[in-house]
Amino acid sequence: MTDYIIKDIALAEYGRKELDIAETEMPGLMALRAEYGAAKPLAGARIVGSLHMTIQTAVLIETLVDLGADVRWASCNIYSTQDHAAAAIAKAGVPVFAIKGQSLEEHWDYLDRSFQFPEGPNLILDDGGDATLYVLLGARAEAGEDVIAVPQSDEETVIKAQIRKRMEQSPGWFTRMRDQIVGVSEETTTGVHRLYDLMKNGQLPFPAINVNDSVTKSKFDNKYGCKESLVDGIRRATDVMMAGKVAVVCGYGDVGKGSAASLQGAGARVKVTEVDPICALQAAMDGFEVVTLEDVADSADIFITTTGNRDVIRLEHMRAMKDMAIVGNIGHFDNEIQVASLRNHKWTNIKDQVDMIEMPSGNRIILLSQGRLLNLGNATGHPSFVMSASFTNQVLAQIELWTKADEYKPGVYILPKHLDEKVARLHLEKVGAKLSSLSPEQAAYIGVTPEGPFKSDHYRY
Ligand code: NAI
C-alpha cells in the first residue's frame, strides 16, 4: 500500500540526485549519522514532522531514520514543497504528504495524515507550530472548551473544520495524542512565540526545545540563509533588474538583516522600517535609511515584510504604491500583508505563485506567493549548508527529548551552549576554517575552559 500523497513518484530519481549533492553540503547532519547511526538513539521514537518538504529536509528526514526513528512528514506551507524531494522520500519508504500548491484543505488533511502512525506519534518536529497547535487545540475542544466555534480567518475555518472531522471520526483522539507526545522541537521564530505564549497561559503539556534560538540557527539560517534566498525568490518570480531599484525591508531582526543584505548585494537601494529602536539604530548604522512605510509607499519599487507580525503592509499602503511595485513576504505566515483585502480587486495570474493585482487607481502590484514566504514559494529556500546547521540542532533536540524525557518538565528550553558550539564546529572544515585554541592561562584569564563553552549565556553574538 502506498502511504504517501505526493505530486509524482517518477520524480524520485531526480530528487535522489539532488539529495546526494545536498549531503555533500550538510556536514553537520552527516557527522551525526557517523556518530549516532550505530547506536540508534532515536529507536522507538515516532516523529511527526511539519516542516517545508525540501531537498534539505529530505536529508534531515533520512538522518532521523538513520538514527532509528519512525517518521511521517507534512509540509508546513502550501507552496514550499519541492515535489522531487517528496518523491525521493516517498520512494525511500517514509510516509510523506506534501504537494507544491496544495490547497489549504489538503494542507490540514495532510498534517492530520502525518499523525497517523498505527500507535500515534510520540514526538513533534514543528516549523511554525501548526502540528503542536493541531493537537492542543483539538484536545481543548474535546475537553469541552469553546475553541473551535468562531473562526477569525479563512485558514482558521479550515483548521477548525479539520479538527471537527477528526473528532467525529475518532472520539478522544486529540487527547490521546496530546498525552503520548513527550516533546516538540520548534524551528522558527513565529513557532517559538506560540510556544512561549502556551507556556505563559499554562497550556503547554510537554517540554519544547526552541531550536530557533540556538545561535547556530537564528544567527545563521534567518540571516545568511535569507541573504541568499530572498533575492533568489524575487528573481525567479519576476526577473526584475534589482540594481538601482528602491527596496523597503519591513523589520530588521535576523531575517530583516539578511534580507536587507540580500537586496543591497544585488545593487538595490535599501530602506528599512522598524518599531524597535535598537533594531532601527542597527539598520541606520549598517547604512540603511530608516523610514516609515507611509513615507515610502508611493516611491519604492520592492516591498518585503520580515517581521513575523500581522498587518504590516496594509491596503492603504498597496493603494499608494506605484505601478508594478513588487510586494512579498519572507516571514513565516501570510498575514504580514493584507492579502485578504485585495480579493475583490482584479487579479491576473502571471505564473505559479506570481499574481498581478489592479488597484482602483489603475496601478498594478506584483504579489509573490500570495503573501506566503516567497523564498520557499518562488524559489527553493535556503542553501543546504546553512540548513545543515539548523537541522543539526533539530536532530540534537529530538535526541535530547527522546533520551532524556524524564529530565524535562513541560516548558520551553534552549539546547545547551556546548551543543551549539558543536554544531558550529561540525561546519568549519567545509569552509576551510582553522580554529585557534586557548592556552590554559588564556582560558583561565577569560574565565572559560580551553574546550569551551567559550561564551556566557548572556553573550549576544
Ligand atoms: P525577529 O524577532 O528577529 O525580527 C522581527 C523584527 O520585526 C523585529 O526586530 C521587530 O521589532 C520587527 N517588527 C515587528 N513588527 C513590526 C512592524 N509592524 N513594522 C516594522 N518592524 C516590525 O524575527 P526573525 O527571526 O527575523 O523572524 C521573522 C519572521 O521570519 C518570523 O515569522 C520567522 O518565523 C520567519 N522566518 C522565515 C524564514 C524563511 O526562510 N522564510 C527563516 C527564518 C525565520
Automatic annotation (TrEMBL):
Keywords: Cytoplasm, Hydrolase, NAD, One-carbon metabolism. Substrate binds at residues 54, 127, 187, 217, 221. GO terms for cellular component: cytosol. It comes from the Bacteria. Pathway: Amino-acid biosynthesis; L-homocysteine biosynthesis; L-homocysteine from S-adenosyl-L-homocysteine: step 1/1. NAD(+) binds at residues 188-190, 222, 251-258, 274, 309, 330-332, 375, 382. This is Adenosylhomocysteinase. It comes from Paracoccus hibiscisoli. The gene is ahcY.
